[in-house]
């Protein structure tokens, strides 16, 4: 079995693959302790390898790799910055500064599309990246995602107070809000949609209609209806991780 880890700033996304590359366990956790609890629940877990992409500090990343070695006796392969992988050229002036999660999503999308593509990752932060038909990464954009926008309003505006259940109910439609929760949640949703529409317009300026759109991240479902042709791929980063860290 192979353990794959995507270590973000706030959460760890993980999954376990069997010999046929089928997913036999996985989830999203907030700590290494929760990760170990989740792994303990995977039936017949016997790890032969592990690979990881991490945007955390070197110390945090090494500590997790050491923990996995102590618990499961596996050495964890770590994705590293690169100028070129599988025909994709890193577009940053300093290639080491491009977030590894973005880089792996770009590599995976280009491998799957084989042509120009727009990669949208809608999570705590929202990122977009443009990859030309020849594999050249043209750059991208980063902005706050819905969770960050919501939390900033809750934190800095004293009268905005509501729970997650109310937030979910508020998104049943996008008519003008008649309560604070509706106004905030629908406003954030519309800002996200506006960002996505702008990325599509830019992609069309580059490539007309000859490109593919990839959607990943926790809020990908909130924009699916305005991107009917997009490929929604929750595990896009893991696909890139396998390309960057092949196992024998």
UniProtKB/TrEMBL annotation:
MF terms in GO: ATP binding; metal ion binding; pantothenate kinase activity
Pfam families linked: Pan_kinase
Compartment(s) where it occurs, according to its Swiss-Prot or TrEMBL record: Cytoplasm
Gene Ontology BP term (one): coenzyme A biosynthetic process
Keyword Cytoplasm tagged: yes
InterPro entries: ATPase_NBD, Type_III_PanK
GO cellular component: cytoplasm
Active site as annotated: 101
Cofactor binding summary note: A monovalent cation. Ammonium or potassium.
Binding, substrate: 92, 99-102, 180
Keywords noted in UniProt: ATP-binding, Coenzyme A biosynthesis, Cytoplasm, Kinase, Metal-binding, Nucleotide-binding, Potassium, Transferase
Binding annotation for K(+): 121
Entry keyword annotation includes ATP-binding: yes
EC nos: 2.7.1.33
Binding site for ATP: 6-13, 124
Cofactor: NH4(+); K(+)
Main location: cytoplasm
Involved pathway(s): Cofactor biosynthesis; coenzyme A biosynthesis; CoA from (R)-pantothenate: step 1/5
Catalytically driven reaction(s): (R)-pantothenate + ATP = (R)-4'-phosphopantothenate + ADP + H(+)
Family under the similarity heading: Belongs to the type III pantothenate kinase family.
Main function: Catalyzes the phosphorylation of pantothenate (Pan), the first step in CoA biosynthesis.
Listed name of the protein: Type III pantothenate kinase
Originating organism: Pseudomonas turukhanskensis
Gene expressing this chain: coaX
């Amino acid at each position: 079995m192979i353990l794959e880890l995507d270590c973000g700033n706030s959460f760890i996304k993980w999954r376990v693959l069997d010999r046929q590359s089928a997913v036999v366990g996985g989830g999203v956790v907030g700590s290494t302790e929760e990760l170990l609890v989740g792994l303990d629940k995977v039936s017949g877990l016997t790890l032969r390898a592990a690979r990881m992409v991490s945007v955390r500090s070197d110390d945090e990343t090494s500590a997790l790799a050491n923990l996995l070695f102590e618990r499961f006796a596996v050495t964890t392969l770590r994705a590293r910055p690169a100028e070129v992988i599988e025909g994709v050229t890193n577009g940053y002036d300093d290639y080491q500064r491009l977030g590894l999660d973005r880089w792996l999503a770009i590599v995976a999308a280009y491998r799957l599309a084989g042509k120009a593509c727009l990669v949208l990752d809608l999570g705590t932060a929202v990122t977009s990246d443009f990859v030309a038909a020849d594999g050249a990464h043209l750059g991208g954009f980063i902005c706050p995602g819905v969770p960050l926008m919501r939390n900033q309003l809750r934190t800095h505006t004293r009268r905005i107070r509501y729970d997650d259940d109310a937030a979910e109910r508020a998104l049943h439609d996008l008519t003008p809000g008649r309560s604070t929760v509706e106004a905030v949640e629908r406003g954030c949703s519309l800002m996200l949609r506006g960002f996505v529409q702008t990325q599509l317009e830019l992609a069309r300026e580059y490539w007309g209609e000859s490109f593919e759109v990839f959607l990943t991240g926790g809020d990908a479902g909130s924009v699916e209806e305005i991107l009917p042709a997009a490929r929604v791929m929750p595990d896009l980063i893991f696909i890139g991780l396998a390309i960057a860290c092949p196992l024998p």
